Amino acid sequence: MRVIKLTALWCPSCIIMNKIFDDINKEYNFEVISYDYDFDNDEVSKYNIGKILPVFIFLKDNKEVLRIIGEKDKQEFINLIKEV
Amino acid sequence: MIYFDYSATTKTDERVLKRFNEINEKYFFNPNSSYNEALKSKEIIIDATNTLASFFNVNPTEVIYTSGASEANNTAIKGLAFNTNKKHIITTKLEHSSVVSTMNYLQSLGYKIDFVNLKDGRVDFDSLKLLINEDTFLVSVCAVDSEMGIRQPIEEIGELLKNYEDIYFHSDITQAVGKVNIDLTNVDLASFSGHKIFGFKGIGALIKKDYVKLIPLIHGGKSTTIYRSGTPQTELIDSLKTSIDLIGQDIDKNYQYVASLKDRLIGGLKKYQNIKINSNKYSIPNILNISILGYNSNSIQRYLASKNIFVSTKTACALNDDYSLVINYIYDDLERASSSIRISLSYKTTIEEVDEFLSILDGMLNESN
């Protein structure tokens, strides 16, 4: 699975979720493509994101299968991944 | 116009402007040059620095001039981070974006960032103690946050951190300067800007205690300190002194006056069941954050602006201006977070402006009914 990670520098929740996601990804080894909301505007605009950052978009065969938005604790995040 | 956005910026005071022009006229010379006129320019800077140092009760050598609080925050946090082998920083979710963004950047370089829990919007000391570890080199907590106006116990936080070796305490004091008395005894580094205290945009300072070593962000030629290069901005540095002179003399009196305005505002808002006061007992009088349930923050701001009243909506981690993560974080209430506005007052605000605001807000609420 591939993960598109959308964050912004000014976002405290992004700092928290970067850390949680990096921890989780040590086990899952997802291919991660990171975009910054301000620096990668063109790319970010393709993903129709809502009000809140960060956004993690999980792609299987290039199709979105899961979208995790905002702050989640580690177990909650893992549970959501396990569902797909 | 009713300007209720003093925490965003202030209009430069006429006395600051007048003095700026006088200094520019007489002392525009490069203070690093060696002829008499230039030396006078240097004396202006020395005099301004002495005034600032005296105001903050620090040594003149502990004042580093910057372009504003954002640069001061960056200089303090990156400057310390790049000067240590330790990798752990503790901060809060209430910080200005120049602190949060710097933390995020440092995280990308391998630093570990933790957010301390808050209790009633203030730093929870138990949480802080639990987060501190051998790798911690910095705790950064604003003296007053810009959204809720909550005053953090920076004196007590600094006192606690004295028990730990090699942990520095940085505080962004931008929203506190001139509004409340600040004791920097236990604070190692403090940042602020001129434009929040009726001075100019483009000037601020980092107070850095002499014993703190850091790597400068801007390398270059000789300036007022070794920690920030660039030709010393005599006129702007002097303007910071004028601002401090003006605002620093009546802090207690102004505090009481602004508190009376805030009480009047809250009194006038009490009759509306759908208005919630977000600022709490720890908030400074200058900032009143409210939610008007049933209304979107943006639409409230637009309505008031159409009546020539200017307030703020503040956001963090929200991509539209209509959602406040800070309010949601503090109150765990999405509706409240989506309908919040920040009213920020100053000692220049009048009772008539407060009453006019209440009357226009009443019109808005009746109109939609």
Description:
The complex is a heterodimer of chains A (84) and B (369). Chain A contains 3 helices and 4 strands; from the N terminus they run E-H-E-H-E-E-H. Chain A is α+β, with helices and mostly antiparallel strands and 84 residues long. Chain A has one domain (2-73): Glutaredoxin (3-Layer(aba) Sandwich). Chain A has a 4-stranded mixed beta sheet. The mean pLDDT of chain A is 95. Chain A binds chain B through residues 7-16, 18-19, 37, 49-53, 70, and chain B through 93, 95, 97, 100-101, 103-105, 107, 112-113, 115, 316-320, 322-323, 325.
Can you lay out the helices and strands and say which pair or pack?
The complex is a heterodimer of chains A (84) and B (369).
Chain A lengths: L1 E6 L4 H17 L2 E6 L4 H4 L10 E6 L2 E7 L4 H10 L1
Parallel strand pairs in A: 1-2
Antiparallel strand pairs in A: 1-3, 3-4
Chain B lengths: L1 E2 L10 H14 L8 H21 L6 E4 L2 H13 L6 E4 L5 H12 L3 E4 L2 E2 L2 E2 L1 H7 L4 E5 L13 H8 L6 E5 L16 E5 L10 E5 L25 H15 L2 H19 L5 E3 L9 E6 L4 H10 L2 E2 L14 H7 L2 H5 L1 E5 L6 H18 L1
Parallel strand pairs in B: 1-13, 3-4, 3-7, 7-8, 8-9
Antiparallel strand pairs in B: 2-10, 5-6, 9-10, 11-12, 12-14
Helix pairs in contact in B: 1-7, 2-7, 3-4, 8-12
Quote the beta fraction of chain A. 25-35%
- Total helical segments of chain A: 3
- State the distance separating the first and last CA atoms of chain B: 26 Å
Count of individual domains of chain A: 1
- What about the largest sheet of chain A? 4 strands, mixed
Can you summarize the main beta sheet of chain B?
A: 7 strands, mixed
Q: Whole-number average pLDDT of chain A?
A: 95
Span between termini of chain A: 10 Å
Q: Strand pairing plus helix content of chain B: what structural class?
A: alpha/beta
